[in-house]
Amino acid sequence: MFKIKIFTSIIIFSFLLIGTSIIKNHTREIERKIYKISKSIQKKERDHNESQLDFYYLTSPSSIEKKIEHIDSNQYIPMDYSNIFLNIFEFLDIEKKIVKQRKQK
Question: How many domains does the chain have?
Protein backbone atom coordinates (compact mmCIF):
# COMPACT_ATOMS: atom_id res chain seq x y z
CA MET A 1 0.00 0.00 0.00
CA PHE A 2 2.83 2.38 0.91
CA LYS A 3 4.65 1.63 -2.37
CA ILE A 4 1.52 2.36 -4.42
CA LYS A 5 1.13 5.81 -2.81
CA ILE A 6 4.75 6.69 -3.48
CA PHE A 7 4.57 5.38 -7.04
CA THR A 8 1.32 7.30 -7.69
CA SER A 9 2.70 10.52 -6.22
CA ILE A 10 5.91 10.21 -8.32
CA ILE A 11 3.87 9.67 -11.49
CA ILE A 12 1.59 12.65 -10.73
CA PHE A 13 4.58 14.84 -9.86
CA SER A 14 6.40 13.83 -13.08
CA PHE A 15 3.28 14.43 -15.16
CA LEU A 16 2.74 17.88 -13.65
CA LEU A 17 6.45 18.76 -14.04
CA ILE A 18 6.48 17.81 -17.72
CA GLY A 19 3.09 19.45 -18.34
CA THR A 20 4.27 22.68 -16.73
CA SER A 21 7.39 22.87 -18.90
CA ILE A 22 5.39 22.18 -22.07
CA ILE A 23 2.85 24.89 -21.22
CA LYS A 24 5.63 27.31 -20.33
CA ASN A 25 7.37 26.76 -23.69
CA HIS A 26 4.11 27.29 -25.59
CA THR A 27 3.36 30.51 -23.74
CA ARG A 28 6.89 31.75 -24.39
CA GLU A 29 6.42 31.15 -28.14
CA ILE A 30 3.07 32.93 -28.05
CA GLU A 31 4.62 35.89 -26.21
CA ARG A 32 7.34 36.15 -28.88
CA LYS A 33 4.74 36.17 -31.64
CA ILE A 34 2.71 38.81 -29.80
CA TYR A 35 5.83 40.95 -29.37
CA LYS A 36 6.71 40.72 -33.08
CA ILE A 37 3.16 41.54 -34.12
CA SER A 38 2.92 44.48 -31.73
CA LYS A 39 6.23 45.87 -33.06
CA SER A 40 4.98 45.64 -36.63
CA ILE A 41 1.69 47.29 -35.63
CA GLN A 42 3.57 50.14 -33.96
CA LYS A 43 5.72 50.62 -37.04
CA LYS A 44 2.69 50.65 -39.34
CA GLU A 45 0.84 53.09 -37.07
CA ARG A 46 3.85 55.41 -37.08
CA ASP A 47 4.10 55.20 -40.87
CA HIS A 48 0.38 55.84 -41.17
CA ASN A 49 0.58 58.89 -38.91
CA GLU A 50 3.55 60.27 -40.82
CA SER A 51 1.75 59.70 -44.11
CA GLN A 52 -1.31 61.51 -42.83
CA LEU A 53 0.81 64.40 -41.66
CA ASP A 54 2.56 64.62 -45.04
CA PHE A 55 -0.76 64.44 -46.84
CA TYR A 56 -2.36 67.18 -44.75
CA TYR A 57 0.66 69.40 -45.05
CA LEU A 58 1.18 68.91 -48.76
CA THR A 59 -2.46 69.20 -49.74
CA SER A 60 -3.32 72.28 -47.78
CA PRO A 61 -3.78 75.17 -50.21
CA SER A 62 -2.41 77.73 -47.80
CA SER A 63 0.95 76.00 -47.53
CA ILE A 64 1.20 75.74 -51.30
CA GLU A 65 0.35 79.43 -51.69
CA LYS A 66 3.00 80.38 -49.15
CA LYS A 67 5.60 78.39 -51.00
CA ILE A 68 4.71 79.94 -54.33
CA GLU A 69 4.68 83.48 -52.89
CA HIS A 70 8.29 83.12 -51.77
CA ILE A 71 9.40 82.05 -55.20
CA ASP A 72 9.89 84.64 -57.88
CA SER A 73 7.69 84.24 -60.89
CA ASN A 74 10.82 83.83 -63.04
CA GLN A 75 12.09 80.96 -60.93
CA TYR A 76 8.81 79.11 -60.85
CA ILE A 77 8.56 76.84 -63.86
CA PRO A 78 5.99 74.07 -64.00
CA MET A 79 7.42 70.60 -64.31
CA ASP A 80 7.06 68.76 -67.57
CA TYR A 81 5.09 65.56 -67.55
CA SER A 82 8.19 63.71 -68.68
CA ASN A 83 9.93 64.63 -65.43
CA ILE A 84 7.26 63.01 -63.28
CA PHE A 85 8.05 59.41 -62.45
CA LEU A 86 5.43 56.91 -61.36
CA ASN A 87 7.92 54.78 -59.48
CA ILE A 88 11.60 54.64 -58.59
CA PHE A 89 12.42 52.08 -61.27
CA GLU A 90 11.52 54.46 -64.08
CA PHE A 91 13.75 57.08 -62.55
CA LEU A 92 16.64 54.64 -62.18
CA ASP A 93 16.28 53.47 -65.78
CA ILE A 94 16.52 57.02 -67.08
CA GLU A 95 19.48 57.72 -64.81
CA LYS A 96 21.28 54.67 -66.19
CA LYS A 97 20.66 55.86 -69.74
CA ILE A 98 22.00 59.31 -68.93
CA VAL A 99 25.12 57.85 -67.33
CA LYS A 100 25.73 55.61 -70.36
CA GLN A 101 25.39 58.59 -72.70
CA ARG A 102 27.86 60.62 -70.65
CA LYS A 103 30.37 57.77 -70.66
CA GLN A 104 30.12 57.46 -74.43
CA LYS A 105 30.88 61.14 -74.92
Answer: 1
